[in-house]
Amino acid sequence: MTSLPRPTTDLSADEARRIALRAQGFLGAPDRRAGVRGVLRHLGAVQLDTISVLARSHELVPYARLGAVGRATVDRAYWTGTHAFEYWSHAACLLPIEEWPHFAFRRRAYRNRPHWNHELPDGAYEQVIKQLRAEGPLTATELGGAKKTSEWWDWSGSKVAVERALMYGEVVCVERRGWKRVYDLAERAVPEQLLHDELDDSECLRRLVRLAGQSLGVGTRADIADYHRLKGEQVDAVIADSGLVPVTVEGWGKPAWADPAALGTAPRGRHRTTLLSPFDSLVWERARTERIFGFIHRLEAYVPKPKRVHGYFAMPVLAGGRLVGRVDPAREGRTLVAKQVTLDGAGSVPAVAQALVEAAGWVDCTDVRVERVDAPELREPLARELARALG
Q1: Contact 55, 75 (CB under 8 A)
Q2: Is 364 helix (H, G, I), strand (E, B) or coil?
Q3: Any residues with CB less than 8 A from the CB of 113 and at least 6 apart, and which?
Q4: Model-level pTM?
């Protein structure tokens, strides 16, 4: 590991938390004119996931920052025109199209990858490219078959081929149709000036490290590496030239780096009160979430039901710059059901009620029903707040 420059700025834990909130779009007025695309550019990556309870995670992310932006508006912003592309970043993510050149290092790595989970049948790759060239955008089914069963590993040859082409950068996803990817050739879907701008690995990594630092505001080496799932040594190789500056943060116990634009003035403005997707970039890294907010967050969707503590899709509640509870939601017709609510004391009741009512309105629910509150003595105060908020 290269030696680290001596930090020139000391931050309190509270300053670091507020810097992170502002960098993630939760402190201060958001740029509503830029809309959903502005949120994507600001964050640099929006994670995709198949789970849909209130809505899918890529819809929840702009909602959490902008409020009740229409779900159809969200989808149009992502997939209409050449504004975004899907690729492997923190996980499967939507990324701003202008960052296409900076993932060249990962496309090269995939092309040089010796082992794959799925074998590629002879001729399947060439057939998929030929069919897309002749017929235009197609789903995996239209290319000759998607998954043969519900198991992720049992892919048809054409599905293996088109996903391999996606990873190589020869094919992109141009829209989602019933959550199925619609594929097209990159040469048609990516602006020409970006398509052929192949940067070397150092240039790619330097850019992604800087973007991660800007999106986080302040972070440790591990935080920065995790944002786009880089290796620690990749971060070490370029961080000194990334434009980020070394800082120390009270209580972190590890070296940290900050976006210089985030330093110098205390972050001010209105705090957002909202439910957060478990895949939101504010909370997607568990160790960082615990370090900044003192909040232990686990996604329990894949945990057997008897072993769940907070629920299938427990969503943290952000209010006043703190994580003040969590809600495991569901929908029954026009009712948003809070299957389980965890509150951080009586003081968090109004914020949780506000977050629930706003989320209900966003997904066209007219009522909110609470099934369980972990602290029984707070059930009645929460019911009163909900009744008042619902009018």
Answers
A1: no
A2: coil
A3: none
A4: 0.93
Closest C-alpha among 212, 175, 189, 155 to residue 79: 175
* Residues contacting 207, CB < 8 A, separation 6+: 99, 102, 199
Q: What are phi and psi of 193, to 5 degrees?
A: -65, -20
Contacts (Cβ under 8 Å, ≥6 apart) of 233? 1
Helix (H, G, I), strand (E, B) or coil at 8: coil
289: Cα within 13 Å, side-chain hemisphere: 21
CA-wise closest residue to 328 among 346, 310, 344 = 310
Please tell me the distance from the alpha carbon of residue 88 to that of residue 111, in angstroms, as a whole number. 14
Joined together, the tokens standing for residue 195 give: 């398509």
The residue type of 211 is L
Q: pLDDT tens digits for 180-190?
A: 999 999 999 99
Q: pLDDT digits over 139-176, tens only?
A: 999 998 655 555 555 678 899 999 999 999 999 999 99
Q: Which residue, chain included where needed, has tokens 């997904």?
A: 363
Tokens of 19: 């810097």
Which neighbouring-strand residues pair with 271? 27
Q: Is beta strand 9-11 parallel, antiparallel or unpaired with respect to 245-249? A: parallel
- The Cα 225–Cα 82 span in angstroms is 27
